[in-house]
Amino acid sequence: DILMTQTPLSMSVTPGQPASISCKSSQSLLQSDGKTHLYWYVQKPGQSPQLLISEVSNRFSGVPDRFSGSGSGTDFTLEISRVEAEDVGIYYCMHTMQLPYTFGQGTKLDIK
Amino acid sequence: QVQLQQSGPGLVKPSQTLSLTCTISGDTISSNSGGCNWIRQSPSRGLEWLGRAFYRSQWHIHYAESVKSRITINPDTSKNQVSLQLNSVIPEDTAVYYCAWGINWFDPWGQGTLVTVSS
Lengths: 112, 119
Known about the structure:
heterodimer, A: mainly beta, 7-stranded mixed sheet, 4-stranded antiparallel sheet, B: 4-stranded antiparallel sheet
């Protein structure tokens, strides 16, 4: 199974400040089709996870442009340029490179 | 717009069978673009993908090795539902269970069902 490792596991951010979450996979997520199957989800308090970013860097419909994803191979980053109060939640990376799909441990973001 | 509605009991006795249903609206489960996944979440295991069913000229059903001997995912095209059965449950199967739509990414997710395994 591919191991997904996120850091940090928690962070407290002042509104308006940036935030960055790292996700490392135990093997490359680059598929033979040229796509990299790395996704970011956020689980807001009391809600189901929801898709933020697909294929490393594509913001999903309705996701604010303060969210961005980057990376390649085994190292990926989710950045929030200016954190807002509504960004509180747990952020997960996930791969769909091969079965079984696996998730990172999650990074809990709260507001200072 | 696809929506998922989960149903099923929230309490299951040890050694019995956990059964949940995911009803899909806004798409058909036998479309050649969708797919239904089952995922669970617990404090000890985090988010764990359990399996999926999707149709591409025929049904394809896959399971995680960790539950392969105990799990059945069954699509029901007449009701546009996908069910999850997990046999011989133990307390460690206590979790919030989600269905989620998609193949390479999951959107949307069902509302989640907390299933507690306890006598």
